[in-house]
Write a structure and sequence with these properties.
Blueprint: E1 9-15, H1 21-26, E2 38-44, H2 54-57, H3 62-72, H4 78-85
Antiparallel strand pairs: 1-2
Length: about 120
């Protein structure tokens, strides 16, 4: 049986502050802007699934990034698309994240040792 891998994914995270950040910051003498609890999302996909290269995606404003996200999620559940439609575009940004291709384990040639001799 082959596993079906969806090339575009979404991570969601609810940020709930135990106390308002501006109030918490006053104990250490730091001033912060007031912040409400919020829902964070990240849209993930291999490079080739984004409609533009990194150089262009990195220059897009939040409104354009939302348009890209909505376009990449056509056919997704309407509730997830509604979340995208309601995002605060001024807080949106593009962040390329790189991963490497897994390499099969090999046999180490040597290891770093302390005062005791290394053995194979």
């Amino acid at each position: 049986m082959r596993a079906f891998v969806r090339p575009i994914g979404m991570a969601l995270g609810l940020v709930e502050f135990a106390e308002p950040p501006a109030e918490a910051a006053t104990r250490s003498g730091v001033r912060l802007m007031p912040a409400e609890d919020y829902l964070m999302f990240a849209l993930t996909a291999p490079r080739g699934f984004f409609p533009h290269p990194d150089a262009i995606m990195s220059t897009m404003d939040g409104e354009r990034l939302r348009e890209v996200a909505v376009g990449m999620t056509r056919g997704w559940h309407p509730n997830l698309r509604a979340l995208l439609a309601r995002c605060v575009v001024g807080e949106s940004f593009y962040l390329p994240i790189r991963v490497s291709t897994p390499v099969p384990p090999g046999r180490p040639a040597r290891s770093l040792c302390s005062a005791t001799p290394c053995t194979r």
